[in-house]
Amino acid sequence: MAAMPSGDDAPGTAADPSRLFHAGNRALQDRFDGRRVADALEARRRASAFAPEHAALIAAAPFFFLATAAEGAVDCSFKGGPPGFVRVTGPAELEWPDYDGNSMHLSLGNILLSPAIGMLFIAFDGKSLRLRLRGRASLVEDAARLAAIPGARRLVRVAVTDIFPNCPRYIPDLAGGAPSAYLPRPDGSSQAPEWKGRDYIRDRLPRDDPHRE
Q1: Tally of CB atoms within 10 A around 90
Q2: ∠ at Cα 159 (156, 163), nearest 5°?
Q3: CB-based contacts of 14, cutoff 8 Å, min separation 6
Q4: Rg of the chain over CA atoms, in angstroms?
Q5: Helix (H, G, I), strand (E, B), or coil: what is residue 156?
Q6: Given CB 3.0 to 4.6 Å as the disulfide criterion, which of 13, 121, 168, 204 pairs with 128?
Q7: Structural domains of the chain, with CATH
């Protein structure tokens, strides 16, 4: 494997201005000739504030997936509620109610010790939408606000740092019962996704990319 980048190549430095990638990401990008694509995608797709389409996907979502970690305890959790239960409350801020659960507080306990979280919103309805968020979460216990949200025990507020709508090609259409059209065929080939043909990507594809022209 390629050598890990030195401390001078840490994210956000003059040596590597990336806000999205750390040394581990960079090591694999360099090993598999993917840094050009990664840099182009970060430059074109990463955002630090919600666009209208991001806010619309969040507002319509009846669920999302939440990733937290603290002291070696890594957790991925499903969070569900009525559409609109996750509310965009600022240009790069959102919150959702925590409902009655099993009293283990795996996700919230992680947040108390380590507020960095990841969120994943997916539409499984054939619209091919996927939105990844990173941010820092905090717990809010405001009696007046909680009283206005049926079933809310507390609120989780997130200051979002990275907004990244990325490739949805392997997402199945669960509503229509159809698998993704981009799954590998029996011979190993696959349909090329639209994004690989974009003018800022197609000439940057890795040397061994199956859809490289």
Answers
A1: 12
A2: 115
A3: none
A4: 19
A5: strand
A6: 168
A7: 1-46 (no CATH), 52-165 (2.30.110.10)
To the nearest 10°, the Cα dihedral for 77, 114, 158, 45?
A: -80
Chain segment 172-195, per-residue pLDDT in tens: 888 888 888 888 888 889 999 888
pLDDT at 206 over 90: yes
Query: What is the signed CA dihedral for 140, 144, 150, 152, rounded to 10 degrees?
Result: 20
Say how far apart CA 36 and CA 200 lie, in whole Å: 10
Sign (positive/negative) of CA torsion 188, 195, 18, 130? negative
Cα(21)–Cα(48) distance, integer angstroms: 15
**C-alpha–C-alpha distance, residues 19 and 150, integer Å:** 38
Digit-coded pLDDT (tens) for 48-107: 999 999 999 999 999 999 999 999 999 999 999 999 999 999 999 999 999 998 889 999
Q: What is the model's pLDDT at position 11? A: 60
Amino acid making up residue 157: R
**Backbone φ, ψ for residue 6 (5° rounding):** -75, 175
Residues contacting residue 212 through CB under 8 Å, at least 6 positions apart? 205, 206
Residues 6+ apart with CB under 8 A from 153: 97, 98, 99, 100, 146
First to last CA, the chain: 27
Query: Are residues 107 and 75 in contact, defined by beta-carbon separation less than 8 angstroms?
Result: yes
Q: What are phi and psi of 46, to 5 degrees?
A: -70, 140
